[in-house]
Design a protein that fits this description.
Isoleucyl-tRNA Synthetase, domain 2, alpha/beta, 4-stranded antiparallel sheet, aminoacyl-trna synthetase, 31 strands, 5-stranded parallel sheet, aminoacyl-tRNA deacylase activity, single chain, 944 residues
Length: 944
């Protein structure tokens, strides 16, 4: 038998597919299916997370291709923005961490890395590297359409896109807080970050408390409605604070040094005067600007000087952190005259809600991790269900919050400060990001209400989401999305057409490139200067106009776009719902006609490595090229597809990958063994029909699963399900029998084709060994009605159940029987089961109703007590089975005596004992009176 040499097989078929240009597709070759996936940013090596991202769409592409669809699966490379520039700068200045990452983890050759001082060299090296690895993974991509986002033709496409948005009033200049890198002197997006990709910008209200000398003690809060409940302020006694002069307000403030640096970027004109320790202000009194009450400044080491202003207002009645901190001080005998002041009433909580939740969660001190959960629970409950007390009595929390802001802002006692929702937020240049209030910046107006409404309509009624429960997350994103800074001053990319000093940033030039793929291969041959807005208007919007390119080529491009669009599915990671995936819906609804809006989106989970989150910077990553070299592409694909559904997180574990490799070797050997058996004849027995029926079930289940993108379920059915069926079949019959050989050859032909989308290399080689001249043109197996017969399923279930029961008895008794006697259930018990199942199908089964119907039968009347016990047992047993199982049991009646008799030879072979089968109704041999225990699908068993 030929050995499974995966390296030879994979290189052979990769070469054949590439030379044959197998995956290059054009319109007019059948019904189209167009899917695409987020293109990669080639600034570092591909890892196994990328492997999963790109294998899922490839499995679906191959599946649909084998169904007869004309499938487009394209790929490009996203290189816009500052990430590669940041990498280049770090390497140029000798950054040790960057050099170590690229030398030791990504294993970039020294001579190549020396050229990385030019960002274009990084793009060139990794985009070529990615292309080679994608090919070695067997991705069925049409590489003619490959492009990068700095190609001049693509830039002309983006120019057209933004002219469209500006004409519709959806791009405007304004002032807005953005993530900003002080070192790069540029706004930054999620693609530009080493960490903090999920951080959002939160708006805090600065409340100005006042020392007697007029110095402002600013506190930043999200809950201005609780100001009447302030009992004290918190300051970190060991923290570094500064006094600053606000020049434009002629005010002196005390705040942390870190806060002062942040506010410089947020339009605060301040000058630092002196540095002081927080301990100097402990026990000082300050005035609450809302009610003029004097409150004390108390020490608290939990105060983070890098959060807000570094000084916190304390509301112990409604903030678990404040409640615990005050309790700790009072337990030490201090500040016992301070008492929580309730300002919000909430059903289900006592007068002091923070005390309730702290006591219920048994929170002991300020270090208790449950404090964060307590805070989240209470804040949500108060915001959603809370009713204000005191001055704003009866109002909701949200209303009171805005009223307090308005009152204090009118008095000059409030300001706005912006903070990140999580930290750290690090630019790829290794600098901590800040929030900057940008003026004269260009924004995409995602805040536009009419635009939001169009996107929501698309989400609810046009675009199918997988999994469906993500709809609420998409809708929430649409709701909270605000205007987005779409340009920056430096980086790679397309200049803003009407203000070319600005460059369109990465998340803003990657929203409709799915349409670009449809014509990308044509555009490569066109002078970019000829690609004006009229060309793209004609192609994508069907507008008439004077174009400077060949009319025939223009017509071809328009026809190709109309053939492929809209795309059927887009696939991307779940962390992109908050930006890219929702952005692209906005841009599609703004630019394209309704019939070209996205049809579907599939969202991925994340990848883990041995239970830990993968991180290239920490070296906790497996390079995809290494995995392919060590295990083979098919093994990598099989593990990634078999370990989790696409929307679930997967966990790469070497031990399980090694096991997957063994599974494929076993599959290879099994199929080769059956191929070498030669030809059989279609002389079929019951067990053959059972296997063929099982195969039809597997084909249907796997096909249905892949239609739902449930790649794991499909792989489990296709690989392990069929393997399990075949293993049982080979035990049940004489495999040298001509009918068995025909059956197994029929099965492996289907089996190999079913697995082709998942493991294309090994299956192509096996198809070749089976005599198929062009494996790439093989079709997916479909349900063969000739072999659909549930009766054989029930018959074999009876045999397998009986086999398992005998095994269990032998394990318990530890005897070696000379004889095994089986008693099949009598017909009256089978009839009783049928009555109960029929009533179960109609609805609830009542003991009295069944007894009334059954006792009309004289045969049943004679067995009164026995029947009564059986009815109760059957009602309990069949209460939980599903409708499909009920239909199966009702639709087929099998002769259990005949089935068991036919299987007697199998039982004798397995247990090395003589086997006799009797009908329990009239057994000629029953020394232990076992026959009375015979039950439908569960014969009585006696061992001698």
């Amino acid at each position: 038998m030929k050995r499974y040499e995966f390296k030879q097989i994979e290189s052979k078929w990769q070469r054949i597919w590439e030379e044959g240009r197998v995956y290059e597709v054009d319109p007019g070759q059948g019904e189209k299916f167009y899917l695409n996936v987020a293109y990669p940013y080639p600034s570092g090596a591909m890892h196994i997370g990328h492997g999963r991202t790109y294998t899922v769409p490839d499995v679906i592409a191959r599946f649909k291709r084998m169904q007869g669809y004309n499938v487009l699966f394209p790929m490009g490379f996203h290189v816009t923005g500052t990430p590669v520039i940041g990498v280049s700068n770090r390497i140029a200045r000798g950054d040790k961490e960057a050099i170590k990452l690229y030398r030791d983890v990504y294993r970039v050759p020294k001579d190549v890395m020396e050229r990385f001082v030019d960002p274009n060299e990084i793009v060139s090296y990794f985009s070529s590297n990615y292309t080679a690895i994608m090919k070695s993974m067997g991705l069925s991509i049409d590489w003619r359409r490959r492009f990068t986002t700095v190609d001049p033709q693509y830039s002309r496409f983006i120019t057209w896109q933004y002219n469209q948005l500006k004409a519709k009033g959806l791009v405007a200049k304004g002032e807005h807080p953005v993530k900003y890198c002080p070192n790069c002197d540029n706004p930054i997006g999620d693609h530009d970050l080493l960490s903090g990709e999920k951080a959002t910008i939160s708006e805090f209200t600065i409340i100005k408390f006042h020392l007697p000398d007029g110095t402002v003690i600013p506190t930043a809060t999200l809950r201005s409605e609780t100001l009447y409940g302030v009992t004290n302020l918190w300051i970190n006694p060991d923290g570094d604070y500064v006094t600053v002069l606000l020049k434009n307000k002629n005010e002196r403030w005390l705040l942390s040094r870190e806060a002062a640096e942040k506010l410089k970027y947020q339009d605060f004109d301040l000058e630092i005067e002196s540095l002081v320790k927080g301990s100097r202000f402990i026990d000082r009194m300050v005035k609450n600007p809302l009610n003029d009450e004097m409150v004390e400044i108390l020490p608290a080491k939990f105060v983070d000087v890098d959060m807000g202003t570094g000084i916190v207002m304390s509301v112990p009645a409604h903030a678990p952190f404040d409640y615990i901190a005050l309790r700790d001080l009072q337990d030490a005998g201090k500040y016992r005259d301070i008492h929580p002041i309730p300002v919000i009433r909430i059903e289900g909580y006592g007068k002091i809600p923070a005390a309730d939740v702290v006591d219920r969660m048994k929170i002991k001190n300020q270090e208790d991790e449950k404090l964060a959960d307590a805070t989240e629970e209470l804040y949500a409950a108060e915001f959603n269900r809370g009713v204000m007390l005191q001055e704003f009595g009866g109002e909701g929390v949200a209303t009171a919050r805005e009223r307090v802001k308005k009152i204090l802002t009118g008095r000059g006692d409030a300001a706005v400060m912006y903070e990140f929702s999580e930290r750290p937020v690090m630019c790829r240049c290794n600098t901590s990001a800040v929030i900057k209030l940008l003026k004269d910046q260009w924004f995409v107006r995602y805040s536009d209400k009419d635009w939001k409404a169009s996107v929501k309509e698309c989400i609810r009624n046009r675009t199918k989401l997988i999994p469906a429960e993500l709809e609420s997350e998409f809708l929430r994103t649409v709701d909270w999305l605000n205007d987005w800074a779409c340009t920056r001053k430096v980086g790679l990319g397309t200049p803003l057409p009407w203000d070319p000093a600005w460059i369109i940033e990465p998340l803003s030039d990657s929203t409709i490139y799915m349409a670009y793929y449809t014509i990308a291969h044509h555009l490569k041959e066109i002078d970019p200067e000829l690609l004006d807005d009229q060309v793209f208007d004609s192609i994508f919007l069907g507008k008439d106009g004077v174009c400077r390119i060949d009319p025939e080529l223009l017509a071809d491009m328009q026809a190709e776009f109309l053939y492929w669009y809209p795309y059927n599915y887009r696939l991307s990671a779940k962390d992109l719902i908050s930006n890219h995936l929702t952005f692209q819906l906005f841009h599609h609804t703004a630019i394209f006609r309704d019939e070209h809006l996205p049809e579907g989106i599939v969202v991925f989970g994340i990848g883990l490595l041995e239970g830990e989150k993968m991180s290239s910077s920490k070296g906790n990553v497996i390079l995809l090229s290494d995995a392919i070299e060590k295990y083979g592409a098919d093994t990598v694909r099989a593990f990634l597809m078999g370990s989790a559904e696409p929307w679930q997180d997967f966990d790469w574990r070497d031990e399980q990958v090694i096991a997957t490799r063994r599974h494929l070797e076993r599959f290879w050997n099994t199929v080769n063994e059956i191929i070498e058996m030669g030809d059989g004849k279609k002389e079929l027995e019951s067990i053959d029909y059972w296997l063929l029926n099982r195969l039809q079930n597997r084909i249907k289940a796997a096909t249905d699963a892949l239609e739902r993108f449930s790649t794991r379920s499909a792989f489990q059915e296709t690989f392990f399900g069929i393997e399990s069926d075949l293993r049982w079949y080979r035990r049940r019959t004489v495999i040298s029998r001509s009918g068995a050989i025909w059956t197994m050859q029929y099965l492996v032909d289907c089996w190999v084709r079913l697995l082709a989308p998942f493991v294309p290399f090994i299956t192509a080689e096996l198809m070749s060994l089976m005599g198929k001249s062009d494996p790439s043109n093989e079709k997916l197996p479909v349900l063969n009605e000739e072999f659909v017969n549930p009766e054989f399923e029930l018959e074999e279930r009876l045999v397998e159940t009986t086999y398992n029961d005998i095994n269990e008895i032998l394990k318990v008794t530890k005897i070696k029987p000379q004889r095994i006697i089986l008693y099949s259930a009598p017909l009256w018990k089978q009839e009783l089961r049928k009555i109960i199942l029929s009533k179960r199908k109609e609805g609830r089964v009542e003991m009295g109703d069944v007894m009334k119907e059954v006792m009309r039968d004289p045969v049943m009347q004679k067995r009164g007590k026995e029947v009564s016990k059986l009815i109760k047992r059957m009602i309990d047993e069949y209460q939980g089975i599903d409708e499909q199982e009920i239909d199966l049991l009702l639709s087929r009646e099998i002769n259990e005596y005949e089935v068991l008799s036919a299987a007697a030879e199998f039982f004798q072979r397995e247990f090395n004992a003589h086997v006799s089968v009797f009908d329990a109704e009239d057994p000629s041999y029953d020394p232990a009176r076992k026959s009375i225990h015979a039950y439908p699908m569960k014969p009585a068993i006696f061992l001698e």
